Amino acid sequence: VFGGYAVNRKNDDPKPLFLEDLHVGQRFTSGLYHLDSDQIKAFAAEFDLQPFHLDETAANDGVFHGLAASGWHTAAIPMRLLVTGDLPLACGLIGLGVEIVWSKPVRPGDMLKVESEITEISPSRTKPDRGAVKVRSVTINQNGDHVQAFIAKLLVFRHAADSEPLL
Amino acid sequence: VFGGYAVNRKNDDPKPLFLEDLHVGQRFTSGLYHLDSDQIKAFAAEFDLQPFHLDETAANDGVFHGLAASGWHTAAIPMRLLVTGDLPLACGLIGLGVEIVWSKPVRPGDMLKVESEITEISPSRTKPDRGAVKVRSVTINQNGDHVQAFIAKLLVFRHAADSEPLL
Predict the structure, then answer these.
(1) Do A96 and B102 touch (CB under 8 A)?
(2) What's the pTM value of the predicted model, to 2 decimals?
(3) Where is B117: in which H helix or E strand?
(4) What pLDDT was estimated at residue A13?
């Protein structure tokens, strides 16, 4: 939809993980996501119509001193990487909440990857088939710069859990 | 890109606001954003390829008991509303970070609006032309359900500020 992108899958046939397969300190590294200026502009045209996301010339005079991706675009890209196999949770990636910090602009031509670590596992007190898992991630560009950090709180099920209402 | 949507602008000719125009407790209400199943699926196909965001039948058996929008889609929609005039910051909406909580699924046919309140204003200690502003928002559907809450930390400039490097 936003033009082509290259995704180099890190993990082509990941073993699906359930709550009991996770532990604090467990790490995951994603494949790569290539972002170009057409993608940046297409996303911005839909959700973030600001000159520094839409037009190179206007962006040169703006606060980012050049075209930069919308933070919401930068936030969605890791999901693409994680959900296609780089964080292979068996029941999917179901977010309860997230904290994001945007620390550097994401530019046309950037090649992004995500490094993640499980920082907290909290079994549900009322529903024995599930728990909340905190995952701390950084999005890193081709120069090794951390462009974004985020901590997601995910709903994760035990093996053979029935599908019941959320939490 | 993701199909049509209806945006009823709340504020057609907003007065652009600078840091000195803002105060804690100031409130903003957005226009409406209509979301349909094609938009939900198109966004998910790009960024969040999970059955409960892509296919009604699969979604019926899934954790949301029906098709639901990706949380990243739900997160990006308020930006569309706010940046097109419903939070009329003169220098644009420049996010430093955000905390999001997703509390209810967003469904095809939902009509979303955003209610926002300024909760904190912190002038920069080193750069007198700018400050950080916290805005607490809720995304509300046509039934009055709060589907998402988020607190954004924005970079806001004083009037006639020069464009300088960020923070």
Answers:
(1) yes
(2) 0.90
(3) strand B111-123
(4) 66
